[in-house]
Amino acid sequence: MDMQVAVKSNSRKRRKEDTGSNGTTDDDAIPVKILRPVSMTLSMPAPFANENGVTGDKPYERVTFEEAKSGTPLDRPVRVYADGIFDLFHSGHARALMQAKSLFPNTYLIVGVCNDDLTHQFKGFTVMNEAERYDAVRHCRYVDELVQNAPWSLSPEFLEMHRIDFVAHDDIPYSSAGSDDVYKHIKDAGMFAPTQRTEGISTSDIITRIVRDYDLYVRRNLQRGYTAKELNVSFINEKKYNLQERVDKVKQKVKDVEEKSKEFVQKVEEKSIDLIQKWEEKSREFIGNFLEMFGPEGALKHILKEGKGRVLQAITPKQSPSSSPTRERSPSPSFRWPFSKTSPPSSPKLDLDATGFDTSDDDTE
Q1: What is the pLDDT of residue 66?
Q2: Among 111-115, 162-166, 193-197, 236-240, which stretch is predicted with the lowest mean pLDDT?
Q3: In this structure, what are the phi and psi dihedrals at residue 84, rounded to the nearest 5 degrees?
Q4: Can you tell me the distance from the alpha carbon of 107 to that of 104, in angstroms, rounded to the nearest whole number?
Q5: Is the model's pTM score more than 0.90?
Q6: 101 burial class (0-12, 13-18, 19+ CB within 10 angstroms)?
Q7: pLDDT tens digits, residue range 226-254?
């Protein structure tokens, strides 16, 4: 609070110092959007209305829509009010508050949150209690002030007490508390500023998901250490959920084994296909080499032809030339059988001298 007051006073001092002779300032032409100090935004939640209080000595006068759009002085922000239950605070809530904060250049956003009694009476049971919902909204970056125990329908006294200029809400008629639209009198007074709903996200959608997947969430929380009593689960259902958890674990193990088996079989198939391809390549190479060696026109046939020619050439004697003198072959001695009566012809005696040379006379002298 001290920081906000200091910032506002410093801004007023700067405006007085920058005022020209004609009473205008440089900031009058450009709408200025006032925000909480950065240090407070980052380190502190939005204050409660009863803690913050409303300052000002002058009676409160609302600004018109045109004045709010054109930009108000720094010390007179447009006070926009947005209310709701804000159970299970989600992005849809945050977007609605962001739109409310961005309606005008200089906006001070006040958010009202209804308490548990009022909410349970007109809307239904909540997941979060009022303290949790207050704290969740206070920590939204777009909120400047939070009103606890906000009323279900806005009375003129409430608007006057909090000096509200405009009320932000989606334009869909909100029927509740016996009324077709609880914001009808706000719209008739020209104080209504419409925002857009975020489709696809709401507190009811989140609760529907939880109810739809109830068994899964119960089993998850039982596994995380919550007792059956805390979850309002009977003894039989607790045993059923534990059994289902064990069965799911077994199924998961079987599934993991199947996946690993499929991976193993796939790897074996890939390796077998690779081996078959290599074997086919090697077999084609072997057959090609075999045909190249032993085929009809293979190298072996040529080798055999060459070898045969060489063998025939080696075993066939060379013919004598026709011009060379012929030599008469001496008759071979006749063979005498051991029991034959005919005696072999006697060979002529040779006279040998002591030297062993033939000394007989030569017939041809």
Answers
A1: 93
A2: 236-240
A3: 170, 180
A4: 6
A5: no
A6: buried
A7: 999 999 999 898 888 888 888 888 888 89
- pLDDT of residue 83 exceeding 50, the answer is yes
